[in-house]
Structures are given as C-alpha cells and as structure tokens.
C-alpha cells in the first residue's frame, strides 16, 4: 500500500521540508540524536513562550501568566514524541482550544452562584466537569491532546487564569502557535514534524491484476465422442490382426 501524495509536495522542497514533507520516509535516528533535539526543542519552546508572555507589557497589564502550566506537558509531546498522533498540530490546537473553551464556559456557569464562598465550595466540581467534558469533546472531534485536560482544569481551579475570563482563549491559541513554530524549526533539522497536519494520509490499496480465468471444463460430449472413436480404432486394429 502506497501513501497518497501529499499536497505539500507541490511546494519547493526548501519550503515543504520545514512543514514536515519528505519525498521518502526519513531514516531512523540514533537515540542520542532524538534526546539532543528533544532537549533543544523543549528548552527553546518553553523559553519563547515565557519570553513573550512574561516580558511583553501588553500581556503583563492584562494579568496573563508567563505560561499556562499545561504546556509543559505539551512540550513532552511536540518535542519528544514527534511521531505520536497526539502531538500533531490538529491535536495541539484543537485540544487546547476545546479545553480552554469548556473550562471557561463551565466556570462562568458556576460563577452564577449567589456568593463567591459558594463557588469556592464547588470549585472541585467545576474543575472535574471541565476536565471530563473536554476529554469527551476531544474524542468526538478527534483532537485528543492529553495536556489539554489540564488546560480545562486550570480555567476552573487557578485564580489567575480564572480572572482572565474569555481572554484565556486567545492566549491559549497564541501559546499553541508559538509552540508549533519552534517545533517546525527544531524538529525538522534531523527529524520530521508534523507527520500530518489535519488527518493521516489515507493509504491507497494497490490494484491487484485480475487473474486469468481458469480453463473451462470440456464438453462431456467431446469426451464421449473421443472415447467412442478410440474404441472404434481399437476394433479395427484387432480385426486387421
């Protein structure tokens, strides 16, 4: 079975290479190469995210934390397990966005309780519902990304993120974009990332040539005719003798 042609093959190779396209499967790298680039990728990815949100006054004035803690787990996937389906861009963006959206929505509903004290008493329930609901929705949309469960949970149980409200959604999208940008640069030096962008390439089944039709059975009448002719010939030979 041959994989279907990637759309990225239409781009020049010096561009498509950094988007994960390879004309042929890349060779398996030694473990020390994988470990080295996993370290470099995780270090650079987390550093870039913290530099953007921790140093830019635009985000500091809005009380945005330097990093959403769940992206530490994302770094394990997108820099250390680059071939895993859970680490691909669809799961990265879709999972975190769904987690943030569900977490904010459920937390907003719980904030309709009459007092803040009552909300604090039920904070555990808001967090549990946020995490569980995001897991199911990620399964439905085929965007399962394990760290996104923490993204949903933090929206309910972390006071700094709770205070961001709906602003949490664009922050998560930007964080995912930064993590992906670093992954495209670092992971494509000696490895390949992503393996796919939206869905795996569907393999095409090789066409099997039709087999030659087996010879049809001869007509029974032909067999009986041949037998009678042979019998008649034997009789003639016997009479001649």
Put the structure in a nutshell.
With 241 residues, this protein is mainly alpha-helical. It has helices at residues 13-16, 31-55, 57-60, 71-80, 89-110, 116-121, 123-141, 147-157, 159-164, 168-190, 220-240; strands at residues 2-3, 203-204.
Mean pLDDT: 85
Distance between the termini: 69 Å
Number of E strands: 2
- Computed over alpha carbons, the radius of gyration is 33 Å
- The helix tally amounts to 11
Tell me the major beta sheet.
2 strands, antiparallel
> Which class do the helix and strand fractions yield?
mainly alpha
Q: Biggest sheet: strands side by side, in what order?
A: 1-2
Order of helices and strands: EHHHHHHHHHHEH
Share in helix: 55-70%
Q: Uncertain regions: pLDDT < 50 for 5+ in a row?
A: 1-5, 236-241
Taken as a percent bin, the fraction of beta residues is under 5%
Shape: elongated
Could you characterize what this model shows?
By secondary structure, the protein is an all-alpha fold. 63% of the residues lie in helices and 2% in strands. It is elongated and about 70 Å long. Helix 4 (71-80) packs parallel to helix 10 (168-190) and helix 5 runs antiparallel to helix 7. The model is unreliable at 1-5 and 236-241 (pLDDT under 50). The chain has helices at residues 13-16, 31-55, 57-60, 71-80, 89-110, 116-121, 123-141, 147-157, 159-164, 168-190, 220-240, and strands at 2-3, 203-204. The chain is built from eleven helices and two strands.
